[in-house]
Amino acid sequence: MSLLELNNLSVQFGPFQAVDKISYQVEEGEVLGIVGESGSGKSVSSLSIMGLIDYPGNVSAERLSFNGQDLQAMPEKQRRKLTGSDIAMIFQDPMTSLNPCFTVGYQIIEALKTHQGGSKKELKTRAVELLTQVGIPAPESRLDNYPHQLSGGMSQRVMIAIAIACDPKLLIADEPTTALDVTIQAQIIDLLIELQRKQRMGLVLITHDLALVAEVADRVIVMYAGQIVESGPAAEVFATPKHPYTQALLASLPESAAGKSRLDALSGVVPGQYDRPLGCLLSPRCPYATEQCRQVEPDNQGDLHRQVKCHTPLDTEGRPVA
Ligand code: SF4
Ligand code: MG
Fold first, then answer.
1. Which ligand sits nearest to residue 296's alpha carbon?
2. pLDDT for 179-189, tens place per residue?
3. Where is the ABC transporter domain (predicted)?
4. Cα(281) to centroid of ligand 1, in Å?
5. ipTM value of the model?
6. Which atom of ligand 1 is nearest to the CA of 280?
7. Is the CB of residue 46 less than 8 Å from the CB of residue 229?
8. Is the model's pTM score more than 0.95?
9. Is 21 left (phi over 0), alpha (psi -120 to 50) or beta?
10. Which of 239, 235, 281 is nearest to 41 (CA)?
């Protein structure tokens, strides 16, 4: 039994298909990277797991389960309890996730209270422990700070402390370092990975940083326009990408010599509500697109281990298989 299981999950906003029948699993202790440009549906799919898609958004799935429990069939109250404790999420901008009106200590203690309880003194001790765990110096003195008194990096550490307060089995981190300075980014990622290993959490890391995913993820999912276009073990996918979109993303990394020309080949942006092409959604941007690509949507090829959604997946040399 997987920790998290999605089968054909879709999210629709009116006529707009933000997430289009995606399926994946996360195992206990596994780091899953989800990559793709903005607008690819990475965040929306995660918010739907948390039950955070509001009207008029509509979520449907053949299966959406956590630890074998069907999240869709669960009463609202029970699901909210689960998604605040066993599944936790941290967001891009810690400044907007923390409540500016309450102290750090108050916010951590509130999170602890909802899920475990204890005396005032016990809760305070646990809050200090958590701040220590996320590497905040002089934690005791920080409890009385308001969010505006913290730096961006410190705020994200506090958010992580709140997220892990209930010992989650799964942590979803949506671009957790995007709002931070480069040097701080690495520290926050190191912290997340350290906590993930120590507590054997499943970690879903949503990012546009492929180099990071290559370094820390066990498996990777590449999303484009709401669909999963490629998935598999991170090392394999990055060594020999089979989808032209993955190839283009990798080629746009600064270390890549082939960078420029490939990136030029992928000009344009992810299609929106009114310009979704027929056939393969990448066809207007794909350097290998054929007439078939412009007419017929490709199926998923491969097995659960490694999948690619393309009529002519690339071979190990990076050329389309005719
Ligand atoms: Fe490119 Fe065609 Fe593959 Fe789509 S199906 S990614 S257009 S080669
Ligand atoms: Mg996003």
1. 1
2. 888 888 899 99
3. 4-250
4. 8
5. 0.98
6. 4
7. no
8. no
9. left
10. 281
